[in-house]
Amino acid sequence: MIIPPRLKFTLPLFGMAAATVLFFWRVLFGNQVLFWADLTMQFYPWRRFAAQCFAGNQIPLWNPYVLCGSPFLANLQSAVFYPVNVLLLGAPLDRGLAYGAALHVFLAGAFTFAYLRHLRLGRFAGVIGALSYMFSAFVICRLTFPSMASVAVWLPLCLLLADRLMRRPNVFDAAGLSACLAAQCLGGHLQLSVMLVLAVVALVGARALQRGPAARVRGSAWVCACLAVGVFVAMGQLLPTADFVRHSQRASTQFSEAAVYSLPPWQLTMLLVPDSYGHPALGNYWGEGNYWELCPYFGALGLAFALTGLLTVRRPARAFFGVLFVGSLVLCFGKYTPLYKWFVYSFVPGFKSFKGPARFLFLTAFSGSVLAALGAQEILGGLRRPGPERAGVGWPVVALALAAAAWLGFWLLAQGWLCRVGADLLAIQFRRVASTVEAAKLPALAQVAHATVLNSLLMSTVFLGASATVLRLGIRSKLRPATVGWAYAALVFVDLWTFGMRANPTTDRGYYRTVPPVLARLPAGPAAPRLLQRPSVFAESWGKYTSFMRFGDTRYGHVRGLVATLTPNLNMWFDRPSAEGYDPIEYSFYDHYMGEAQDRLSADGRTAMLAVINVHFTEMYGSEPQPAGLTLLSTGPPKLYALRRPLPRAYVLPDAEKWVHHGREVAAEAVRVADRTGEARIARYDANAVELSCVSSRPTMVVLADTFAPGWRAFVEGRPARVERVFSVVRGVRVSAGKHRVRFVYLPTGYRLGAFVTLLGLAALAGLVGFGLRQLGPFGRDAAAPDRVQ
Asked: Which contacts of 447-452 are long-range, i.e. CB under 8 A and separated by 24 or more positions?
């Protein structure tokens, strides 16, 4: 049957769409929702807050519900202006998270397929490479961390457009590349954005070496211009973020902190056997860090095809993606080799503020998938050769299948010895990860670990054996190359489907409608008295419900207890303000202040540092003793306490100089003298503006117990006034005796300047498109012309 050329491109896309729907059917159409860890604690409450602000015709610049108030838009992972997030604003929030996850997985596959076809690979090879990337561990295991997927999907399309510009520049490709670079900058994960740009620059450099001087300069100039336009379009997000990071705990990190989540070289076995260090779905992960950060799996077949591409293909793309695959994998080792510290941490801008060298698996997964497509193309092309020339086709697939079978046989025959050695290795590993396990339990744990590895190894061996069998039948002409291609695509999908279906826990949809009983005692609204979550709350939520080692019971009857903890940022679900937060970036001075306040409460029950920031309630779990300055309100769980001497959100203090220059040391005195010379009341409280009315018998300091931030401006009776940092953490304004209206407005310079630059970038992007439409004749022919260089 003759397939029209257009269908040769669109049919695989329909197939990938069907595969995506099959993978996500439980959360797209069933009664299940994604909920685990950061999705619950960060992204769901953030999306809810952003939707509320947009519904009220406000841009969410400031978040009043966590950390006594904190920049929201400037917290890059909020991804306020990311196009997909904007499109999903009208969807139900729980379904919107699933729609976004499914859409990004499909786009990852579609863009990869388009790029592989651009590289002159056949449709079967393109599908195999696309499936390997879109369902790889890097993409699938991070669905509860949407900002990573929001960046990762754009890499193949950026590479495609940059490659086209290097070969034959035209304004439509330039506009597309600019838009894609802007979108990935707005996606919300700067670390992956920098990696993506580095990959594009590396590709441009490799292509430049293949071109003449004039073409080299022309193509590089086009790509650089696109990079500039893309960054300009995203400046409304990037400039506020840069200003926030400069004052945050992320301004610079020690290497020991930056190297957290380094991939241990001995865990490379997970490339072939994903459960070789256990799996949190089985409750027995015993590797470093956490599973989803360190798992490099992109399919046993994907690995076999990638080895075929790396060892047997003679295309120019093999060299580039081979170097990218090996180089990014080595950088994933982080602290286990000196290369990451010497080259990336020390010299690449931004990486002194980033954590997680293993996130270079982003480039490993994509380059490995491209190599897999190259290998599949080599195999399918080899099957079309005359009989004698087919003999050695795909030998790496057979070799890896035999190696896996030998490993499986050893694992079966040497079970007793492996379990004895495994108990000793587990003891060493548990000490390394600071986990305590009784020595008597180690033999039983070793038995469980052996069974887990055995099952995972068996699955990989079965898929590799099936692929080797299909290859053998193709070599003997018992299967047509097209049939082999369909079989390989199906095997790749089933392999990754069986892996990925366990990677993201789901629960009943009613989870997002849970209403904890403790809410009855906590007033709601941005100006309501604040709640403080004690360390035992964090221990309860992370230890019982979101442990790195195990997913645990994900049934609704159990996980609704996580919502009841109100651990940050779950309080945002219910519009309850908190002095704590689960934001990736926070002001360093606030971080220090809250650390000291929590320590003082634990040490001797002193609550003055909490009172001056409007904390009225604290919650805790377990047998943590009741601090002296608190009164028990309910036994919970969680136990809820009230401060005995709280302060309102706005209050007045005499002797303004004392509170500014002496800082937190005078908090106890402030509690005694607050509102003695007057009072302050909140007249209006919006996300980005607060209005107070105050009266005082003498010159005084009006305090708004919200976090001080450089972008806040104050007006007293409409005239600008200086905003001062009181107690080293909250905002205050000096006023004279009498009645006054004080207005605080949050409009940081970084946002205003960034918005202006964004408009310039959008104008440049529109100009590119307009110019291309006017010049559609020659540029249109160039854009549509097939690439002849490979």
From this structure: 447/419, 448/284, 449/278, 449/284, 449/286, 449/422, 450/411, 450/415, 450/418, 450/419, 450/422, 452/275, 452/278, 452/279, 452/282, 452/284
